[in-house]
Predict the structure.
Amino acid sequence: MHPYHDIPPKSRWKDAVAARSPFDVSDLWDPKFPIAQGTPVVTFGAGVAQQFARALTARGMAWFDAEPAPRIVSKRLAQQFGYRRFSARTAAIDTPSLLLQWLRWAFAEAAIPGEVWIKGERFIDPFRPQIEPDGFASPETVTRMRDLTLAALRDCVTKSEVFVFALGQTESWFHRDGYEYPICPGTAGGTFDRDRHIFVNQRFSQVHAALGEAITLMRRHNPQIRILLTVSPAPLIATNSGDHILVATTQSKSILRAAAAELSAAQAFVDYFPGYEIVSAPTFRGMFLEPDQQSISPAGVDFIMRCFFDAQERMFGMHR
């Protein structure tokens, strides 16, 4: 007798994958904690977090929108201006270090740089360069509107029970003074300066440390909050690493996945949901990707979220 003699079918490739249609692959996730109908949930991170938020809302779950758009603004216009994409108007947060930076600012644990980009007669927030399509009226407006988002982010941490964070990539751009941008300056605002702007392709130790610090900070301000991590299955749009985009994407996602695994294994209040595996695993044959092989199709989103809700119901008897 050996340890593999009586493992369950889900633990054998032949039974769990090879003998099944991709749509019949199941039991991919054993959630650590329930997310019930009334559990306040917030979503941040890479773009896939937006789809997670929409799915929660469609199911009647308590997705927490801490920074709603003004009532007079249409849904279409609100989306265009960055509302209802994430639980606060942070725009996408692709790296754990950028999440940690936002959290430190929100809880006044780090100084906020005074940098503002100029676009004609308008002004751009370098930490949310696409949040206002036409820019802001003044540098003071940039700061005032960002302060509203920081207050909303504080509410997200202190008033929610589950913080969902979708890790996007390891490639990042920093100012030489140590703060991080969400995108390379010059690509969607600002001017690129080789003397001031530094490319960092973060290694496992950096990703793991930043994500761990972000979780610790959140738990310090809300000891009851639980963290649900996932990795965005969307590949990198472009790489500055010098590697082929396929190689760069694999490296980036592998590091993020490993860091999420380490933190999830170490803490009962941190879990990992395998949305990345559902899209990228060979058994699914790329069927959940759009023709550009970058965007996740609606069918892919539906399947991912069905796996999520089915697992919650199987483990905790949730009503769908």
Notes: Residues 37-271 form one domain.
